[in-house]
Amino acid sequence: xxxxxxxxxxxxxxxxxxxxxxxxxxxxxxxxxxxxxxxxxxxxxxxxxxxxxxxxxxxxxxxxxxxxxxxxxxxxxxxxxxxxxxxxxxxxxxxxxxxxxxxxxxxxxxxxxxxxxxxxxxxxxxxxxxxxxxxxxxxxxxxxxxxxxxxxxxxxxxxxxxxxxxxxxxxxxxxxxxxxxxxxxxxxxxxx
Length: 192
Fold this sequence. Notes:
single chain, alpha/beta, Chitobiase, domain 2, five-stranded mixed β-sheet
């Protein structure tokens, strides 16, 4: 009988310990969530310098809308010794969207929709990021929106690319100690 009583109490103690552990875990979780409520996790954007990800269905991409996009964003840059595009374009249909694609630094989403829309969002899915939403109810409307806003889009993309390039250069600078000591000038010299 005494042995049964000890076994009974031992089982109840384990249940109470489990219950208290659960209460403690839930309390800690709710406190940590309350502290981080305004501090969302920010994902760093991806992509090489001067790369543009375009989310557009294949039918639009292979038609006049795609031709207009390529003409605007992959046109050759003037003044370079060899021909290079303004942006290297990666095109994906909307059904193939995954995290790697939406975290691109420069993202252009083109859709055929009932409403004509143009909007530039900053840091929508990652940081730093520009997301351009371009929609029209016909190919002509999409192309018109693109024509009207392409200079603004390119300017925004280029500003972000310059800042990202500067950030990358600052990560690996050469020492300028000799220049500072000899000429009393400080320079940021990229290592590559």
